[in-house]
Amino acid sequence: MWLAAAGVLLAGCGRRSTLRRLPLAGSVTFAGQPVDDGRIDEAELARYVTWLIDRGVHGLYPNGSTGEFTRFSVEERRRIMSVVCQAAAGRVPVVAGAAEANVAETIRACEHCLEAGARAVAIVAPFYYKLSPESVYAYFREVVRESPIDVTLYNIPALASPIDVATVRRLAEEFPRVIGIKDSTGDVAHMIRLIAAVKPVRPDFLFLTGWDAALVPMLLVGCHGGTNATSGVLPELTRALYDAVQAGDLATANALQHRVTAVFDPLLQGADFPEGVRVGVGLRGFRMGPSRQPATANQLAERGQLAVRLRELMEANGVRRDDPEKVSGLFSSPARTTPPGLRGRN
């Protein structure tokens, strides 16, 4: 029995070691939650994950803001995590949203994410209460001390307490387990200051942007990639943008940035966030089902109008009405899952 238990332990350690070698860079997309009759549609979620990977995304990010993590129970979030990791099957890394309302629950979420097969977790600063930088530091200190899995910070001041530059540097310097940050401010100057502050003490630190409309400038100032809503709807488009930047083809990258922004704006602003993203994913042929957020008749009508607009934008980017899961004519099929210019940077 002891030998069998040891074998299981060693197998688990081997799997985790392999997962740790998966690079975190490039186009890391959210994994939205299809819902069927009020329940998570696990089969459709797994199909969606496979579709995203086949179209060249470099990683997956379930249970984040775009994935509506607050609208699911703790048990449902854990099941979502497991389904995504099983469907990914080690082909790309999974950075799992592990934010809960308190330190103890967040640590338990970190433990589950490790067991499910995630490469790392993303943890937002405490939400609802607006806390001081010292309180934000104290929160992450307690989480990271107990977390069995690598942690990326998630800075989204619109929805949670901000994580300022000094706090990011302090956490990066004191805790090797804090491996990176996703910043969703869209502020390029802030990102420049962040990189300048942290790189001298942690050259390996990962910088991701969560703001699609600034992908190219963020990559050019030193970001390793991004977690972007647009990549969940048009993964071919964001993949092509990353490939162009890595190849040094800035003319193509800038042209693609305008296309990304043209899609991103209605996804974000066309309905209460993230309803527009749900509409967009549905237009690619996936059964997303109704959101758990109730809607009025007027809102449903507005989403119908948004669907018309998004379909036009998708068709302009090569999505066919008769086969919406495919894009033709604009982008070559990605032949790799790791951007060459990012290999080894993390």
> What does the overall shape look like?
globular
The CATH class is identified as: Alpha Beta
- Helical run tally: 13
Work out the count of structural domains. 1
What is the share of helical residues? 40-55%
Question: Order of SSEs, N→C?
Answer: HEEEHEHEHEHEHEHEHEHHHHH
Summarize the entry for a quick read.
The chain has a single domain, classed as TIM Barrel. The chain contains 13 helices and ten strands. It has helices at 2-20, 42-54, 74-88, 103-116, 133-146, 165-174, 188-198, 215-221, 230-233, 235-246, 250-269, 275-283, 297-316; strands spanning 26-31, 35-36, 39-40, 59-62, 95-97, 120-124, 151-155, 178-183, 206-209, 225-228.
Verbal overview:
The chain has one domain: Aldolase class I (TIM Barrel, Alpha-Beta Barrel). 49% of the residues lie in helices and 12% in strands. The protein has helices at residues 2-20, 42-54, 74-88, 103-116, 133-146, 165-174, 188-198, 215-221, 230-233, 235-246, 250-269, 275-283, 297-316; strands at 26-31, 35-36, 39-40, 59-62, 95-97, 120-124, 151-155, 178-183, 206-209, 225-228. The chain has an 8-stranded parallel β-sheet. Strands 2-3 form a two-stranded antiparallel sheet. The termini are far apart.
